[in-house]
Amino acid sequence: MAHILMGVSGSAACFKAAALCSQLTREQHQVQVVLTPAAAQMVTPLQFSCLSGKAALCDEFDPQHPSGMDHIAFADEADVLVVVPATANTLGILAQGLALHLLGSLALAFDPSKPRLFAPAMHPRMWANPAVQRNVGVLVSDGWQMIGPEEGSTACGSVGLGRMAEVAAIFQAIANIQIS
Ligand SMILES: Cc1cc2nc3c(=O)[nH]c(=O)nc-3n(C[C@H](O)[C@H](O)[C@H](O)COP(=O)(O)O)c2cc1C
Q1: Domain boundaries, the chain
Q2: Can you identify the CATH homologous superfamily of domain 3-71+85-175?
Q3: 102 and which of 53, 60, 64, 73 could share a cystine (Cβ 3.0–4.6 Å)?
């Protein structure tokens, strides 16, 4: 059983993150979901709260939060950080170390010696863009593990390299991690 901090960014593949959340929870993992504001336009925080049994987070400035320092507390208690799906925008934020949304803040507060994974999902031309590839290169050299993307038809209906890895492959990559 691991404490998994699951970041969901605003891709058309967001709905697949719900299946992953469900599968991880059924395997007795503790899953804390954090959606970016863009992801919350595509899927609802409530959906992830139901699946994980924990209130999904989205807004860093939500006055209902018991503490204003959630980005430290949630990063502290997690064993693994996984970003599924990872948009081009969020890859840039993570690679540049920016805290432009709660997920970015959490990623900065997360201990980089613990496992960090991301599963990109985007239009093939976005994926091929040199800026995106540069950001991915930075993340991998910073120790992040990339899962996918795959060749095929993307959630937005284009065909090429950029389709998010299958949920089963992401689940397996998480299951393979040794939690210390
Ligand atoms: C319907 C729809 C689908 C989108 N799908 C993707 C996608 O698969 N990958 C991506 O990088 N951006 C996608 N975008 C654009 C992102 O939502 C946009 O860049 C947003 O700023 C990402 O913010 P975030 O990284 O904070 O979640 C999509 C936008 C819309 C409206």
Answers
A1: 3-71+85-175
A2: Flavin prenyltransferase-like (3.40.50.1950)
A3: 60
Position in ligand 1 atom list of the atom nearest CA 155 = 8
Looking at ligand 1, which atom is closest to the CA of residue 93? 25
What's the whole-model pTM score? 0.96
User: What pLDDT, in 10s, does the model give residues 17-40?
Assistant: 999 999 999 999 999 999 999 999
Tokens of 58: 């989205």
Q: Exposure pattern of 125-162 as b/e (b: 16+ CB <10 Å)?
A: ebbeeeebeebbebbeeeebbbbbbbeeebbeeeebeb
Looking at the chain, the number of H-run helices and the number of E-run strands are 9, 7
Asked if residue 87 has its Cβ within 6 Å of ligand 1, the reply is yes
Q: Which DSSP category does 28 fall into?
A: T
Q: How far apart are CA 94 and CA 168, in angstroms?
A: 24
